[in-house]
Specification:
Layout: H1 4-14, E1 36-40, E2 43-46, E3 51-54, H2 69-81, H3 90-102, E4 108-112, H4 115-130, E5 134-138, H5 155-159, H6 170-173, E6 176-179, H7 184-194, E7 198-204, H8 219-230, E8 233-238, H9 249-253, H10 255-258, E9 264-267, E10 278-282, H11 284-287, H12 306-318, H13 321-344, E11 349-354, E12 357-362, H14 364-368, H15 375-379, H16 386-395, E13 398-399, H17 416-434
Parallel strand pairs: 3-13, 5-6, 5-7, 7-8, 8-9
Antiparallel strand pairs: 1-2, 2-3, 4-10, 9-10, 11-12
The chain binds pyridoxal-5'-phosphate.
Pyridoxal-5'-phosphate binds next to helix 4.
Pathway: Porphyrin-containing compound metabolism; protoporphyrin-IX biosynthesis; 5-aminolevulinate from L-glutamyl-tRNA(Glu): step 2/2
GO biological process, one term: protoporphyrinogen IX biosynthetic process
Enzyme class: isomerase
């Protein structure tokens, strides 16, 4: 047994902040991160032997729950055949076929290892295809830690209250126009001024890195219309929403029924089922600009890694309609229970939902405004209510995302017992939030 305090002290002496990714350090909620030794189903267990119902799900990938038997077996079988070949495998084509079957707007897929690599590749591809330099992104949208897209990013950048990142040159930042989310007039104005120089608009399909902020009806379709009119590409970042909010991600809920598609999709998280797989996909006419067919270079020693691909394939194969129905229902139960408990304590809040993703924002002003629609709205909330709420839940054995700017993730493994534990922890936690 190792206490979390001992583990954190040891890790801090050799890892910056004691972690390999900033939000894990509990910076915005305070206290000591739980050093996890195992995870199964809906729970994680720390080195001190304590088990928690987990609402982080590895920040999304664990759609089926942790260590799903079919995924673990697929990984073990693949590992026994060899860890990495640096040569093509048919499993990569099978994974692409699975993605294309779910998201028919994708004709070809390039596999990479992280969501950051996927968006980086999509950006390079958009610039390569159009021959234009500029990008539009939206404040509060997080697309990974590539220089071009770190400006006013959500996620850890919001959690740590950073304006962006040191180390990003003015030249790089200067090629990214950051616009307010859900504001099509701002997009029209940017195109009116810079249209011939804009390579792409990149947007989270449904933002979940500034807390969840649902796109207004017609916003994504409007981006499609404007980009098409100006010869720019639309990159729909589904790293977080892809294969999570529906079989075909957010696009399956919105774009497919409405009859529009982006030029490029980026995928991550669920596509690897907890292993490092991500991808960029789209029509062959765009994707074939990538090397070795086209002039846009992209490569990776571990891209399409056979063990990781096996995990992704097993995850997508197991993610049937029942899984999505379960996760939707569980998200409804938890979000409604939290909201009811906050209301009972008189804590003004809004519930942000986008499919099965949800988060909460605190404060009267936001309630009066009908909930946050942009990053500026989100930042104006009473975020100080979250840390005491978070810690009261943790004390009761429920691990929430350690930041008010992150979505809560349910999985197929959140059964009635797990949901009951979450609901049972709420009265004390909402009292803490009210204080
Ligand atoms: N895009 C979105 C929408 C994300 O949520 C994330 C990560 O949270 C990324 C890109 C970056 O993915 P990764 O952390 O795998 O690099």
């Amino acid at each position: 047994m190792t206490t979390n305090e001992d583990a954190f002290a040891r890790a801090q002496s050799v890892l910056p902040g004691g972690v390999s990714s900033p939000v894990r350090a509990y910076g915005s909620v305070g206290g000591t991160p739980r050093f996890v030794t195992s995870a199964r189903g809906a729970t994680i267990t720390d080195g001190a032997g304590r088990t928690y119902v987990d609402l982080v799900a590895s920040w999304g990938p664990a759609l089926l729950g942790h260590a799903h038997p079919a995924v673990v077996a697929a990984v073990q079988e693949a590992a026994a055949r060899g860890l990495s070949f640096g040569a093509p495998t048919l499993a990569e084509a099978e994974l692409a076929e699975q993605v294309i079957a779910r998201v028919p707007a994708v004709e070809k897929l390039r596999l990479v290892s992280t969501g950051t690599e996927a968006t980086m590749t999509a950006v390079r591809l958009a610039r390569g295809v159009t021959g234009r330099p500029l990008l539009i992104k939206f404040a509060g949208c997080y697309h990974g830690h590539l220089d071009a897209l770190l400006a006013q990013a959500g996620s850890g950048v919001a959690t740590l209250a950073l304006p962006g990142s040191a180390g990003v040159t003015e030249a790089s930042a200067g090629e990214t126009l950051v616009l307010p989310y859900n504001d099509l007039a701002a997009v029209e104005a940017a195109f009116a001024e810079h249209g011939p120089r804009i390579a792409a608009v990149i947007t989270e399909a449904a933002p979940a890195n500034m807390g969840v902020v649902e796109p207004d009806a017609g916003f994504n379709a409007g981006l499609r219309r404007i980009t098409a009119a100006h010869g720019a590409l639309l990159i729909l970042d589904e790293v977080l929403t892809g294969f999570r909010v529906s079989r075909a991600g957010w696009w399956g809920l919105e774009g497919q029924p409405e009859g529009w598609a982006p030029d490029l999709f980026t995928f991550g998280k669920v596509i690897g089922g907890g292993m490092p797989v991500a991808g960029v996909g789209g029509p062959a006419a765009v994707m074939d600009h990538l090397a070795p067919l086209g002039p846009v270079y992209q490569a990776g020693t571990l891209s399409g890694n056979p063990v990781a691909v096996a995990a992704g394939l097993a995850t997508l194969r197991a993610a049937d309609d029942a899984v999505y129905a379960h996760v939707d229902r569980a998200a409804g139960i938890v979000s409604e229970a939290v909201s009811a408990a906050l209301t009972a304590e008189g804590v003004a809040h809004t519930v942000q939902r986008a499919g099965s993703l949800f988060s909460f924002a605190f404060g009267d002003g936001l309630v009066r405004a009908g909930g946050p629609r942009s990053y500026a709205d989100v930042l104006a909330q009473e975020s100080w209510r979250y840390p005491p709420f978070f810690h009261a839940m943790l004390d009761a054995g429920v691990a929430l995302p350690p930041s008010v700017f992150e979505a809560w993730f349910l999985t197929a493994a959140h059964d009635d017992a797990a949901l009951d534990q979450i609901v049972g922890a709420l009265p004390a936690a909402t009292r803490a939030a009210a204080a």
